[in-house]
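Deliverable D4.2, example record:
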Amino acid sequence: MGQITLEGMEFFAHHGFSDEEQKTGNRYSIDICIDADLRAPGLSDDLSDTLDYSRVYGIVAEEMQVRSRLLEHIGYRIIHRLKEEFTGITKVTVDVSKYNPPVGGVVHRSKVTLEESFIH
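Output generated by the structure prediction step:
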């Protein structure tokens, strides 16, 4: 087993509970940790045996363009897209952060962490 992690992916997107947030947009950060069997790529040194980082990033980028009211919904969609696209994933953890959330005070980021395990 092993983990592949992409940290600090940043996007500008139009998410948020209020219509105003959806209209103006905001900056978001995504961190992903994927647990999978990495023995084959460790032995073969072949990209086709592992989870291609650029494909993972592409999936996240696509999901970030789908407007959502809740950070939880974004994270859930990302997890399930990754599971659909890649075989051998046993667990995915996703942090979805929104910079400067409109909470009536100074908050650098709000963050939701979702984790889902998959049994084969």
